[in-house]
Amino acid sequence: MSHFFQKPENALKRANELLNTPNADAGVVKRQKRNALEILHEALIAKKNRTWQPTHEVLMVTYLNITIDLQLGRIAKDGLHQYRNLVLAQNPASLEKVLLFFVSESEKRVAEARKHSTELSILASVDLESSQSPEAVMMSTTTAEDSADRTDRALVLPWLRFMWETYRTVLDILRCNTKLEGLYKQVALSAFAFCRTYVRKIEFRRLCEILRTHLYTMQRHEATPTTQSIRQMRGWEGWSAESVELHLTIRFDQLDAATHLELFTEGFRTVDDIHAIMQFWATPPKAAIMATFYKNLAHIFYVSKNNLLHAFALFKYYTLLQREGTVLPDPEQRQLASAVVLASLSIPIRNHHSILLENAETAAGLLEEKDEHMAALLGYQLALVRMEQQRAQFLASLATDLDDEEEEDVTMAWEPCAMCHLADNEATLCFIGFVHLSGLNVPPVDAIKKTPWEDMRKEVPLTMQCCGHCVHRGCWDSYFATQFQKVIT
């Protein structure tokens, strides 16, 4: 390539001439674009003219436009890294502007391609990082796919691959740089939205790993800086309050996306990430952010059937809304309070599930260790047994907000089986929760099996307190009689 085109203004002029060739067919236009891209790339990597000037920004926008047209993600990545080395120390705002253009323009192209797609779920299981072999191409021509399916694969899938590569490239360039953290957050949230919109579960897991690697790099540098890390992290100014809040916002949206995509294992790992980030912040996050956090956690714990932590997360969500002063409509207020009560009543006796395993003692220890770890991540440092003992205290405080129908269910006229229906038919959990809340000393299930029903019935007090309302034993008899065998089998 001629040294004449190493000057950015000369390279840009020649590239525009090639791009504006009149009356050219598609093959010629594609070839001209590649020639223009080569000229612009030579200008970017030239050892001379390393002082940034506004022409470089125009050159880079033209360069990225061509790579988007031709879907050349790797060449775009190489050019962006070259531009980053050129501009980061002199004008980081220009790098931010160029990266924002690259992401927004790519998103527009994907949105246009999506208009031609009839069913995105067909592509949901396709790995965007896997290359298509010649054998797969030949098989696709002989299968019974209709024209709409082939349109999805031929038109939409390449743009999804390019968009995913775009997010990876931009996040890699922006990582560990305090001045560019705002754009880093914006791109990360856009990537989560991409995974939600196009149901990209595989890519979401990889995105979480990418962000987790960035976090681990910053943690390791903060703890034990080395000569290499100091050189690589010279753009990182440490954990400030703004930086911690920014990374927490990213992880809260990550948790929301994990819940939306029903990737609950990834949701649990995200909770670990959030806890790690909070260690760098002395003051707690805003109540509104934490309320959303606990709302998503409650859903995750409900699906995983961890009733104890589900109840605690719901209670934290309720109290944070109250502390923030959020005014909910009366029906929603009563429904939320009722949900907290029902979730609390559904908490089983400790180690209830462990007795079903061969090694009950080991299983009980593992379950308790897991629960205590998750409770610590949720900010509850006391033993979970204490949390169960404190349950009645906040149940009483919620009694005034109970739904009218729910309040009737805990009065003398209450039919206990109705509560089971409201608790998603978790009859066993309701039985254990009610008895445990009543303060009864319930023996282990293996001991219950050896105890006649009439002897167990004698242990039930004449009246029991539930949310401040008396429930007579007669109202419990039919419930116990129908549910007792379900508990011990």
UniProtKB/TrEMBL annotation:
Domain eIF3a PCI: 9-370
Xref: Pfam families: eIF3a_PCI_TPR-like (PF22591)
Recorded GO CC terms: eukaryotic translation initiation factor 3 complex, eIF3e; eukaryotic translation initiation factor 3 complex, eIF3m; multi-eIF complex
PANTHER family linked to this entry: EUKARYOTIC TRANSLATION INITIATION FACTOR 3 SUBUNIT A, EUKARYOTIC TRANSLATION INITIATION FACTOR 3, THETA SUBUNIT
Gene3D superfamilies listed in its UniProt record: 1.25.40.860, UVR domain (4.10.860.10)
Keywords from the UniProt entry: Cytoplasm, Initiation factor, Protein biosynthesis
Protein's recorded name: eIF3a PCI domain-containing protein
GO MF entries: mRNA binding; translation initiation factor activity
Keyword field contains Protein biosynthesis: yes
Record's keyword annotation contains Metal-binding: no
InterPro entries recorded: EIF3A, eIF3a_PCI_TPR-like
One BP annotation, GO: formation of cytoplasmic translation initiation complex
